[in-house]
Input
Amino acid sequence: MAHEPFIATGGRAGDPGMRLLLLAPALFVLLWSTGFIAAKFGLPYAPPLTFLLYRFVLVAALMAVVCALTGARWPSRRADYLNVAIAAWLVHGVYLGGVFVAMSRGMAAGTAAMLVGLQPIVTVFLARVWLHEPVIARQWFGLVLGLFGVWLVVRQKIRVDSDAIALVAVFAALVGISVGTIWQKRHASHIDLRSGAVIQFAACAIAYVPLVLLFESTQRVAWTATFAFAMGWSVLVLSVGAISLLYWLLRHGAASGVARLFYLVPPVTALMAWALFDERMDMLAIAGMVLIAIAVALARPRA
Output
C-alpha cells in the first residue's frame, strides 16, 4: 500500500496534515469549478473528444516524468491496474467526455451544471448501497436543500432546447462521475497518486484514440493562444491538481462526504463567470449560494 501522508483521525489542529485536510476541500472546489470556464475557452477551437485526447496524453506524459523523478511506487497486481483504469474511464472518459460533448452541441453551461449537480445525491445513494456508508435524515435533507440551491444559482442559464445527444451525454457524465468516485474509493484508493495518474490518463488516451478517429478525424484544431491557455490550464490545474485532490479526499474521507463538495461547484463557477464574462447574478442566485453553504454543512457525515 502506498504511504499515507495523513490519517484523518487523531490529527491535531497544528499538524501540517490536519491543515492540509482542512484546506484541501476548499482548494478542490476552487480548482474543480474552473472546469466549465476552461471548456468555454477551449471548445471553440477544438472538437471535444480531440481536446480531451490531447489533454490525456499530456497529463500521462507529465506524470510519467514526475514518477521517474520521485520514485513513485507502481501497483504490483494486475487487478490494481484494471481498477485504476476503470475509475479513469468513468471519472475522466465518461464524465469529461459527456460534459464536453454536451457543451459542444449547444447545451448551456448552466444546464450541464444543474444536471450534473444531481451527482451528490446519486453518489450518496451508491455509497449507502455499495459501501454501506451510514446516511442519516439530516444528510438527506442537506442534499435535497443543496440541489434546490444549485437550481437557484443556475436557473437563468438553464435551457431545455438541447438535442438528444447532448442530453444523453450529460446524463452519461452524471453516471460516470457518481460511479467512478465510488469505484475509486472502493478499489483504487490505496494506489500511489503519481503512478495512478499515469495509468488513468494513459488508459483514457488509449480509449479515446478510436473515438477521435471515428467521429472527429475530419475536424481540425485551431492552435491559438486562447486554446493553448485552456489546454495548459486543463492539464496542470484540473487534471493534475483537482483530480489529485479529489482522490486524496476520497482516500481520507467518506465518499458521501466528498460528494457534497460538488454542490459548491456551480455557485463558485457562477462567481467566476460573473467576474470574467460579466454574466448576470441576481438576489435569488445569491440566496441559492447561501442555501448551498447550509446544505453542505447539513450533509456532512457523522464524526
Summary: The chain has a mean pLDDT of 83.
